[in-house]
Write a structure and sequence with these properties.
The protein has four helices and nine strands; from the N terminus they run αβααββββββαββ. The chain is of the alpha/beta class and 189 residues long. A hairpin with a 3-residue loop joins strand 4 and strand 5.
């Protein structure tokens, strides 16, 4: 049975009205959820090992977000702000109902001293941390941008020397491509 043009028009009008009511309901609900004074963030939970990252530095970066609407906080912007803190390698922020932001922090892991003032992280990034002393780490040096190569060679040389009971302490790579090592028994080659 086919509908008459009047019935089709009424059916289309009913569908459009229903769609408008539904969309309006969503907008009203979204407006309710995003009101600044509703659903405020009142707690922060930190996850991670904190050897060098100061929780107070994290809390200082978080301060502008406390009391803001749980649903309206820009998590990516917050994560970017937290990554700027010294020693932070990676950070993840998530919401925990009803009022908590959970901050998961991964610290930089230093694997070697670089030249005179730098440090090499586990992802081969050079960072400057003034005044830091970590005497147990090996010392590497080389031209700018060679830290990945130096890291690779250090691993290779260390493996070879470990087989004969020698621990590699320093590795230098020169502009002309020469390698210099200093071993634990202070043999220089």
């Amino acid at each position: 049975m086919t509908k008459s043009p009047g019935q089709q028009k009424g059916s289309l009008l009913s569908s459009m009205l229903l769609l408008i009511l539904f969309a309006g309901g969503i907008l009203v609900f979204a407006d309710f959820l995003l009101q600044p004074d509703r659903f405020p963030v009142s707690r922060i939970s930190f996850i991670g090992e904190f050897r060098h990252v100061e929780k107070s530095a994290l809390q200082e970066k978080m301060a502008p977000y406390i009391g803001n609407n749980f649903f309206a906080i820009d998590l990516q912007k917050l994560e970017a702000a937290l990554r700027d803190i010294d020693w932070v390698s990676d950070v993840s922020v998530s919401r925990r109902w009803p009022d908590t932001l959970q901050i998961s922090v991964k610290e930089q892991s230093l694997i070697a001293a670089w030249d005179k003032t730098g440090w090499v992280t586990s992802d081969a990034t050079i960072v400057e941390i003034p005044g830091l002393k970590m005497p147990g780490l090996p010392r590497w040096s080389g031209p700018e941008g060679t830290q990945v190569l130096v890291q690779l060679r250090f691993q290779q040389f260390s493996s070879l020397l470990a087989d004969v009971g020698i621990q590699l302490r320093q590795l230098s790579y020169s502009q002309r491509g020469a390698w210099q090592i200093l071993a634990s028994n202070y043999l220089r080659n």
